[in-house]
Amino acid sequence: MAVHKLILDDVFEEDLYTLIAIHCTLEDYRLVYLLNKYLGISLIRNPLDLDYQNGKSTYSFFEWEDDKQQTIWNLVSNVCKTEDYRQRNGESLFDSEEKITRIAYLIPEYKMVNYFLKIDNEVNFSKQKYILNNVLKVPQIATAYSIDINQLKSKDNLIFN
Q: How far apart, in Å, are the Cα atoms of 131 and each of 25, 47, 104?
């Protein structure tokens, strides 16, 4: 009996994208305005935020589809802060509420990163360096750098479709 061997290397091709980590203290809308200005792009806020853990953590999400280059640009927040109020009973003379702030991260291995700029489509090294240099020209950005997506443990969180 003949043995048939199927090779599926070409069928399951990984998505190719560039990921840039951005450290800054700006609000998301202000950062988008500056990135649009310095990079010549048109990021706009998606009507729905990224929702993980059934609404327990949501992340602001901006997108622009470049039809000329066949590229999709995404800016997503890495930090989600939620506030909960809990009753304190019996600890003091007066019943009061205690405010608890919970912080969740889209990519937990990069907790110091505020935003991620994801560019779908294979970008060559010189184009990636050009984009990174323009991001670093924004005076309010402390630092930005490229991330090797093959070393990322939670890269499934970057699947937006």
A: 20, 26, 28
